[in-house]
Amino acid sequence: EVYRDASKNASWAWMFFLTFIFLSYVIVLNLMTGVTLENVLLVSRKTEEEFQNAAQVKQAARLREVEARLRYMSSGRERAIDLDKLIAKICQPDFSELLADAGGLPL
Length: 107
What we know:
Elements: H1 2-9, H2 13-74, H3 83-91, H4 93-102
């Protein structure tokens, strides 16, 4: 009804209405895309934090285990570690791969 009244007075009024509809469509589409992406990013951040927390917990547990083994070895109940053998073991090429795969010291 508004269009009919406007087109009687101005024959170019259809451009205004078409432009308004197009811009409204683009704005609404951008808003929906923004809300959707924000939610996806929020979920992604939470998931990443959970993975990091799990990795930290796992690493802390391994460090506690290493500390417990070292305390046990230094208590004299088990034979002492030979420093030369330890250095030779660390210098082996497989050791760095094993260390990287295990996420810490190999046990």
